[in-house]
Amino acid sequence: MQFKRLVEGTLIKRYKRFLADVELRDGELLTAHCPNTGAMTGCDEPGSPVWLSVSDSKTRKYPHTWELVETSRGMACIHSARANKVVEEAFATGLIPGFADYPDIAREVKYGEGSRVDLLLSGAPGQVFVEVKCVTLCRDDGWGLFPDAVSDRGRKHIRELAAVAQQDGTRAVLLFCVFHSGVTRVAAAGEIDPRYRDALAEAREAGLEVLAWQADISLAGVSLARELPFSLDPD
After folding, report:
1. CA distance linking residue 12 with residue 172, whole number of Å
2. Looking at the DSSP assignment, which residues form a beta bridge with residue 70?
3. Per residue in 52-88, pLDDT tens?
4. Which of these, 180, 93, 186, 190, lies nearest to 150 by C-alpha position?
5. Where are the domains of the chain?
6. CA distance 232 to 235
7. Average pLDDT, stretch 188-214?
8. Nearest to 232 by CA among 181, 149, 177, 176
């Protein structure tokens, strides 16, 4: 995934979840859209260098969108919705091993109890339901944790994926897309949401496949690059 154009600034503050005040390099002060509903722990420190994309739409109240931030532990992409596109590109190019027999990819397919799976891979063996989760929470020791806040919705998705995994000819995958360069391994954030961690443990026993992949992040773009170790609990 490539960026068309980014402008650099300094974060003043993030507030109301979806807004961020930024001072551009030329001194202009503006409010940008913050496309991340999570706690963004470690990624929203005032004074951090940030990069914004710019929309040409004349109807947007806030034409700038916050994309990247330089944290104390490395570069992060806080635009969590970008993870779906980055992961889709990785499947399409065959970067992620074990899915060559599922060449067809659909997005946002309805399943379960009113849910939509991020990606549905199809091929001769059957279907693969793929739920993508964006990881930006990075501990000092390199552990990337998910979720960064209690997630009832996340637990619901896990239960539905576990049910899918038990169907004949169907696979279910939870893929943690790491959008932080400081992360070296990934785990469930049991201290933040123990019920999420427990639900994930049960789902793995039911056949849910869990993968963790890290993206390379630059001002040019974001692309999946390498698989990381996953554990239910950090050391």
Report:
1. 41
2. 75
3. 999 999 899 999 999 999 999 999 999 999 999 999 9
4. 190
5. 6-77, 82-231
6. 10
7. 97
8. 176
Is residue 161 within 8 A of residue 205, CB to CB? The reply is no
Structure tokens that stand for 45 in this block = 């420190």
What CATH architecture is 82-231? 3-Layer(aba) Sandwich (3.40)
Beta bridge partners of 23: 10, 29
pLDDT per position as a tens digit, 140-183 = 999 999 999 999 989 999 999 999 999 999 999 999 999 999 99
Task: Give Dmax over CA atoms of the chain in angstroms.
Answer: 59
In the structure, how many helices (H) and strands (E) does the chain have?
Answer: 3, 16
Q: Please tell me the pTM assigned to this model.
A: 0.95
Q: Which residues pair with 109 in a beta bridge?
A: 117
CA distance 175 to 184: 15
**Residue 82 carries which side chain, given as an amino acid letter?**
R
Q: What percent of the chain has pLDDT over 90?
A: 94
pLDDT for residue 114 is more than 90? no
6-77: CATH topology: OB fold (Dihydrolipoamide Acetyltransferase, E2P) (2.40.50)
Contact 143/234 with Cβ under 8 angstroms?
Answer: yes
